[in-house]
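Lecture notes, unit on protein representations.

Consider one protein chain, 281 amino acids long.
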Amino acid sequence: MDNLLFLFILSGAVGHVIWNILLKQSSNKIEFTRAFTLFGSIVLFPFLFFFEPLPKEAWPFFIVTMIIHVFYKIFLCKVYDYAGISYGYPIARGLPSLIILILTPIFFKDDLSFLNQISVIVISIGILLLVFAEGKFKKINFKGLLYSLIVASIIVSYSIIDAKGARLSNALIYLLYYFALDGFLFNAISLFLFKKNRITFKFFRNNFKKITIAAACSVYSYFPAVYGFTVGKVAVVAALREVSILFASIYGLIVLKEKGGYLAFFSALLILCGCVVIKLF
């Protein structure tokens, strides 16, 4: 992998952390999510007229993933309502690698290698330490943990569906359609589910800079990985993206002064190492 591609993929991981940090810092996470997804869709929707349409074979997967992503955003907001980014992000991002690996022998009849088994143990220890990072059992953040587990399960679902859908289409076209329509769908559903969380022109004006950055980062963070999959080794690209776990943990602990200290950082490091081993081997 050349240095330019390496930096390109790493910048995508940073972009993913940035929009998650902005979401965590927002006072009303549903309103902020509605705003930045809508802004991204408004900007990208005109581009649909200049690219080939999504193949009809990919539409069933695309429709399902659009619906699943609505729940993903709702529960991600819940994660950051009840947990810090150094707690919720590593669990929500690291656990899917573990779940998919454990399901491999069941669905694909493949035996786990010795390194795979080690990675299961490493990630499990990392998540367990992170859960107890604040000390006693009574201090466990059960709500944050529950919502993080839900988000992790949703990530597993849409990862499998998107993999199938993107293979039946052009991956970049698939992503373009997703981001161009996602904001409209999420806002339409939010009108019924979150009537109190209305977004106004005043909200856009007061938070325009953060909304713009979050929209740009949420879109950009996925494209380097997709491009990397087409020109580099998939396992290496996927492993590089998991560095976002460490970035999020460092920011949460050092900048946001979240609880957990060195134990939380060590936990995130273990989760990252386990994910890298899974992706590379």
